[in-house]
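step 4 of 6: structure.
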Amino acid sequence: MMKKIFYYELRRMMYGWMFPILLVLNGGYAWYILTTDIITGIAYTAPFSVWSYCTYLGKTLPVTVTTGLLILAGYYGKRQKQADILILAAPVTAAQHLAVRTAVAGVCYLACCLVIVAEAVIFYGGFFQYYDYAAFLLPSCLLMLSCFLFPMGMGHLLAGLHQGMAYLFAGIVFASGFAVLDQGLDLFCAGYFSGRPLGLTAGQGGEPEFFIEPVWLAARCFYILSGAVLFLGMLRHCGQKQTSDRDG
Amino acid sequence: MRVFALYKSELRRLLLSKTLWAAVLLSCVTPLVGYAVTVYNSGMSDIYIRVPVVSAALCGSVIWAVLTMTEAGRLHRSGMGVLADAAASPRVLAVAGTLAVLTVSAATTVLCACLYLPYTASKMEYLFHAPFYIANFLVFVLPTWWGAVLLAEGIWQITRRVELTVLLFALPVCSGLGSYAQNDYFMRWLNPRIISYSDGFISWWPLRMGLYTRMIWLCFAASVWVCGLACMRRYEKNLFRSWIFGLRKCYFMALAVVFLLAGAGLWTYQPFINQEPERLSDENTIVEAPAMKTDAVRYSLRAEPLSGQIRATAEYDIRQPYTGENRLLLNPGYQIRRMTYGKTEIDFRTENDDQNGVRSTYFTLPDIPDQTLTIVYGGMPQIRRPFAAAFVDLSVDCDYIQLSGEAIAPFLNIEDEKGATLMVTIPGHLTPYTDHMPMTEWETHADGTRTWKMEQAGYGGYIRDFAAGNYTTDTFSAAGNEIHFVYGKAYEKPVKQYDIQSAVQAVFEYCTKHYGALAFAQDNIITLHQVSGMLMGGQAGGGYVEWYENVLSPMTLGDTDKGASASEVFIHEMIHQWWGGYGLQCDMSDELWSEEGLTVYATYRLVKEAYGEMYAKQYYVDEWKKAVKNQERNFYNRFPQYLDRLPETYRTELVMENNGINQYMRMPLMILKAQQLVGGEEQMDQILKKMYADRELFYEEPFTYQDFLDYCGLTAADIELDAEEEI
């Protein structure tokens, strides 16, 4: 049953006109960042260095995360709440439904991420004939996962209070993408990846080797864990609410 | 009438909304964001007007766009949309609602300007100019807010979805804020591009440019807004069907297209920046036709500061014309209105071949000797595209006029044995200088303007430079030279307060002591000429030093902690009298070697003596090392084979950046290394003194890098910088 609902929700999202527009926006923005910012090389490193690539992710993920949050906020709209009465009658719990919706938002987020990564691959291959992406994998996964889980958990929490709060949060998340913090503690870390190499000694290739700093890793773990906790908390809250609604 | 009645009721309703007052309050706070921004080497107008106004335009736009989105969906969110649509046409209701928001935003702009006026006036004191301050809010803030409101309303009407409106609105916002648009006057629609302001010589050029770019974006936003009106949902139909339905009133779409074309037209045919390529060209613009002998050359210019234009006439008394095709060069912003030779009208054609700041016009003269060629021309001088983002060197304003070369008079290949006469009519309170020499007052007119005259001996009728401002001149002596210190009347107070005269004397005495007496003062007279802050820097030539206005800014003079600051630019330019075209001429063909390196090194030494070793190390040596290190680390410098992958704009930027670092950072660092190898500062001073004493040997063949090495008794390998160990 869960599977059916998931596919239904996913089809509804994919075939609607909102997601394709958001996907195109994501792709367009990512290409803009690649051809204007990344092409010059971040912090004097190669455009295809891990530093440059992570800066690229840090600059494009705010749009992707905002996309996910907008999709999520849509589930808390007035129309959706009217439909919830019917949904409660279905043989799935509210918590399961929340999980399904999060999974749909996750698939949409993943699709946007795939577009971003694919564009980077095309750009690096086409412009610089660069194809060695092994070192990109770990930071990409950590960054993408933390940028999904924490905003989604927080988004669920805020949207549960009021739909407007989710839109406000989406705006704040988007704006935080322009922050130039260089500590590696912010969500997207574009400022960190573009500033950190400047303080490092150049290695054999003439530029600093990429490495994962403990502080950065700790921040990622914090975002991932707190996002997961928020999400699980929301699942539990939904379950309890549904029980009390039925009892009431 | 219906629109007006609804507009009044919408305005009343809006004024009762708490959201609106929150928006007004937030908008009034936005200039404060600007005060938090650190602005380096800038004048008071930059800090207290430019930056707060830009932040108000940027942040306020977002606030008003959000308010518009909130207001736009209000009726439908409350479920009253159907009733309201029955009472009034939704389109008229939308127009009235938008007009109400525009009205309130206009009132907020005025409120905002009035709110900060006392603070700004008290901070800027004698440099405050109330009309300029108010004009900034009206030109930059108001149209930007209006553009944001129209765009947000238009997008919402098309999508009817808040989240999509937010995202589609964010798209032009991001493109305007992105690094690609950083130096583009036209792309930056939310945060207008203003290079710098002048405190003492108010320039209206940035406001003219700002108003023009705001008009472009208002046209685009209006186009989207009208398009939104055409897409207004009717009878519960979807977007496409509503649009088809709306096509019955085709004038809406026609109006949207007109606005779009108007914006595109204004963008394409902008009159401020010429059309030459971004990349500097090596192609010379020298006129190839043989030189024509002339008896006299007369130029007559009239400045029209209100429109920023000049009207001018050039007359050449030609002894024997060249009957082949002649070519003259003129600033691309000027149009030749008429050309006559004696009494004969001459046909001419102007090519769109902008290069090195000039455009060519071709004409043929009849074979009649001893006639006068008269060229009537005029217009707004256009600045050069490659430098447009860095400085404004050509402007005609009420308080300051700056023109040079072909923006003064056409360049025609002539031999003017008797020289050229320039007559200039300018506002009465301005004092003009031609090639840094004062002009003679000729005539005062009833309209308050004055005509000035200058006779210049033979440079082929070419006048290099013309500047007029509200100047005053102090005359004093320094190291045996007579100094004419020309500066804006607005700066009389700081010049006295900070004893600038003594500072100038100290520089001249230092250089005379270390490098020898100044040889190329014209009759031992040096003119120190303050130029507008819009020019961003200075230059020096025979007997004159042009220096950046902000050197005298109270911010610069009062801040003792400031690093290599504007006042050190002043020192740098004065030192060019020793190391430069009129002192020791350096061979500029080597990309590393130039007189800039020697001048920067000498400035460092002077600053070290004046402010101490720590200061000089922090603001000079450490900065040089950092820049050279970054240059060497730059990926494209390490792997030049990838350079051709870069778009031309970035390639040009990199080349210019490398040239700057080589001349201003790398070379001083190499001279510093040479200083250590020759035995210290005293020994290096002796070498530099000898180089300056021998300057006449290098008039024919300028002083090369190898010459410098020979004087030091070193080889290139000795002073080459080793990557990590030196830097």
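step 5 of 6: annotate
 - Chain B has a mean pLDDT of 86.
 - Residues 231 and 604 of chain B are 65 Å apart (CA to CA).
step 6 of 6: archive
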